[in-house]
Structure of Alanine racemase:
Amino acid sequence: MNNRNVSSPFTRPVWAEISRARLLHNFSMLQQLASPDIRLAAVVKANAYGHGATLCAPWLAAAGAEWLGVTSVEEGVAVRAVCATQRILVMSGLWQGEAEAVLEHCLTPVVWEPFHLDLLARAARQAKLPPQALPVHLEIDTGMSRQGAAHGGLLEELLRRLREEPDSPLLIEGVLTHFHSPDELDSPVTAAQIAAFATAVDTIAAAGLAPALLHAGNSTSLLTGHGLDALRALAARHHAQLMLRPGLALYGYTPQAGGSVSEREEQSPRLKAEGYGLQPAHSHSLRGGASALEGFQPVLSLKSRIVSLRTIAAGATAGYNGTFRAARSTRLALLPIGYADGLSRLLSGRGHVLVRGHRAPIAGRISMDQTILDVSGIPEAAIGDEAVLLGEQGNDRITAEDLAALCQTIPWEILTSIAARVPRVAVD
Ligand SMILES: *Cc1c(COP(=O)(O)O)cnc(C)c1O
């Protein structure tokens, strides 16, 4: 009944196993797709998509990751503590009081608001940095309307400021944008975003700036190759390096397997029933054929153990509000994991958990800290049995896509919802 294979000292039998071998396998597949000319920023934001950034970032660094992408300065500081030499891109800007940490921990911020430049320039001058000593990456809004400077307005303002301060401590090392629908292969929107990006980069070059890096595109962009030729041509024209920023695929999920859900698909039960993500009709567009999407391996498994068993009579109920009512004598198993651990309450009465290689239905409502399973179909189930909520057991597996489909969300949210109180444990 002890928690085998685990090194960290936790006692409650709820844990997430993180496979180093699988993460590095996925990273190596992405490196091959990027080779030889594309650089990668391995995205480890949101605690490495719930996998544990202080576990995953050093593994990726040791495997050759040159750039690591985080969301905030706080995340950047945490990753810097375990990765001394890698470049760390802070992708969601910065806030007051954070510029000093950017300098102290050698983070590379994405900037677009004029106040970002002010905060950084002031901190850099206080630290007596020479001109162009602090690299920043300028984001261009090409249609996501989330962050970034739109061409014309804010971009002109930023360029004017940089022109008026020729001895600015800031260096525009990179220019980036973000695609909002990289999974819609037949749609012209990514091409339009790339065209808008090219116009902005031309404007920046005309202002006398020569960014060394141009970056755009996520896992889907790299796996499908959609838009890469245009991005390559843009980078070549500006004597810059092209970089992509994959996240989800590092953790073993790809668009074909259900990694991307466009709004259109979310709204359409028919498309949803056909399986969301890239449709087979699109496979001719996939880089290297559909095989580019195969072979990625889920890195995280969420596990618990049966801590109590009981048999209830026909007619008895289980859980809050008695939503589960036994049709016959029913054997129930208790797991000490609940929605406070990130197991969505939407799985109540709908999800399954693997026990002894079989699927046990979740009986009734998931509680904050506990979940009841119907193990009537698994007579050998015993206290201490491992229960797999996410991952493999026997010949079966439950993926983040399976849970996302049941919860009407996306694998990104399933993975990042796993609570901080669940210990992340390296397994190989
Ligand atoms: C999260 C994020 C990515 C990675 O996206 P995936 O779809 O997980 O590969 C890339 N770029 C930016 C700006 C992001 O915020």
